[in-house]
Amino acid sequence: MEKLELSVSINVSSDYNELMSNKSTITGLALAILFSLLTAAGAYMRLPFRPFEPVTLQIFFVLLAGFILGPYWGALSQIIYTALSIFNVPIFNASTYGFPRPSFFASPDFMRTWMPLGYLLGFIAAAFFIGKFTADKESSFFSILLVMLTAVFLIYDMGIVYFYIIGIPIHLEFFYSLLGYMVFDLIKSLLAAIVAYRMKPLL
What is the C-alpha to C-alpha distance for residues 65 and 39, in angstroms, rounded to an integer? Predict the structure, then answer.
C-alpha cells in the first residue's frame, strides 16, 4: 500500500512538473513574440534628427527584452523579429536606416542590398548578452547600465563588421553611426536601465 501511494505521488509530481514546464515554455514564447512586436513598433516611434534618419526606439525594446526575458527567450524575440523582416512581413521599417527593404527572395544580391541585416543580428546578440550578464536580479543599477551600454556597442560593432563584409567603407559608416545615433542610443540605454532596475522586484 505504501509503495502504491509512493508511486501515485511520484506520478502526480511528474505530471505537475511537466505541466509547469509546458506553461513556462508557452509563457516564454508568448513574451518573445510580444517583444518582437514591440521592437517592430519601436521602428515607427520616431524622432526627427536632421540631416540623419529619424531616431527610433527599437534598441530600447531590444535591451528590455534581454533583461526581462533572459538570454534565450530574449534572443528568440529578436530572431523572430529578424525572420519577419527577412521574409518581408510589413512590420519592419527599414527606411529608418535610409535603405530600401527588398524581399529576401526578390533580391539577386541579398548581402549588399539588405544592408540593415548586420544591426538586426546585433539585436539578437545584444538581447542574449544582456540576459546572460543580468541573470542575477540583485545586480546594481550601474552594473545593469554597464551591460546595456556594452550591448549597444555590440550592435554597432556587428553592423559595422557586416558593412565591411559587403564592401561598404567602414569610415563612412562609423562616422554616420557615431554622430547620427550613438548619443541617442546611449540615452535609450540609460532609460532602459532605469526601467529594468525598477522592474527587478517584479521578476
Answer: 9
Rounded CA gap, 62 and 139, in Å?
19
Q: Using an 8 Å Cβ cutoff, are 69 and 32 in contact?
A: yes
Full-model pTM = 0.77
Q: How far apart are CA 181 and CA 49, in angstroms?
A: 9
Beta-bridge partner residues of 55 = 47
Quick: pLDDT tens for 159-197: 888 878 877 776 765 666 566 678 888 899 999 999 999
Could you give the CA distance from residue 34 to residue 118 in angstroms, rounded to a whole number? Answer: 22
Which grid coordinates are listed for 125? Answer: 546578440
Helix (H, G, I), strand (E, B) or coil at 66: helix
Which alpha helices (H) appear in the chain, and where do they start and end?
Answer: 2-42, 58-86, 110-113, 117-133, 141-165, 170-177, 183-199
All structural domains of the chain: 30-202 (1.10.1760.20)
Helix 117-133 to helix 141-165 angle (10° resolution) is 150
Round to whole Å and give the CA distance between 55 and 44: 10
Cell of 14: 511528474
State which amino acid sits at residue 76. L
Please state, in angstroms and rounded to a whole number, the distance separating the CA atoms of residues 117 and 160.
Answer: 11
